[in-house]
Amino acid sequence: MKSSAIAMFLGILICGAAAADPAASVPESTAQDTSAFFKEPAWLGQKYFGANEFAKLDALVADLTKSGTRTDDGRFALYLLTLKLDEWLKLWTAEDDKSMNDKLEAWKQEFPDSSLQPIVAAMHMQATAWRVRGLGYASTVTEEGWRLFRERNNRAWNILIDHKKESAAIPTWYELAISIGIDANIPDDTLRKLFDEGIHRHPGYHPIYFTFARQFAPRWGGNYADADEFILQQTAAKTNPEGEILYARLYWLIDQYENGSPGFFEDSLVSWPRMRKGFERMMAAYPKSAWNQANFAMFACRARDATTYGLLRPKINAGQFEAAAPDGISLEVCDARFMKTT
Known about the structure:
By secondary structure, the protein is mostly helical. It has a domain of 185 residues. It contains 20 helices and no strands. The longest helix has 20 residues.
């Protein structure tokens, strides 16, 4: 591994970058117990992969897949592990690709039956696709960038499809296949079949929903009507084990994709009473989550629900609220909106 890659790896491990899950994107505390942190799956996943301890990594992922372990805010520990690996892979440069390919090949040679290795290999290929495309608007992408982007996403797609039999037992396979499939312009009906299969096989695994729902966000070419149809359908589906919590999470997701649009409650088809019910049940299920509670209060403020905001206000973690709130929304603004002043 080259020195630049080592530095990036250590930086991610030490800093513990925030999760990218649109429905829960910051840690519960910045002063977490160090000893506990080094036992968390997100840390262990990076540690084992960085040290080429592939047997331990495969075993950890198999355990998390079977147990469905969650954090205090309801996120899946497996998701956080694979997310951190994906974040690290996105930091590698073209000069580092040979080192990564050698690492992946060593894993494959040592454990040819690994269910996780093809998933990580596809992650890396998708990361290189986005590297050549760039993160700007489509108008900024060069002709060569688009060609390489398509070629690499198709290669990533083929890696996943070729190893579906052994790898789809891990819910991450469906999450990644949908993500890569969207980027590779795989037909909509194929992706929908994968989504339906994924949530049937892995009920309640949020990242599968979140990745598929990306296409319904106006920012990504979708619209609120299609988003609402999808959300209502999935909330009512027999494959949904969480009831109204899923309604709240999916509309929370769409709002995050739209960067907390000021017109969210006017422009979308969201029902605030129903979203509020989902948050209430979420807090009952995960009462320790200051992050979920801060977002609940933030949405109550934006929905101009004075009663709910007033009930939540004494319990709000100010730092979590500021991290959750979009531009133009703050505790000062919400207090001025609802609270009596002297």
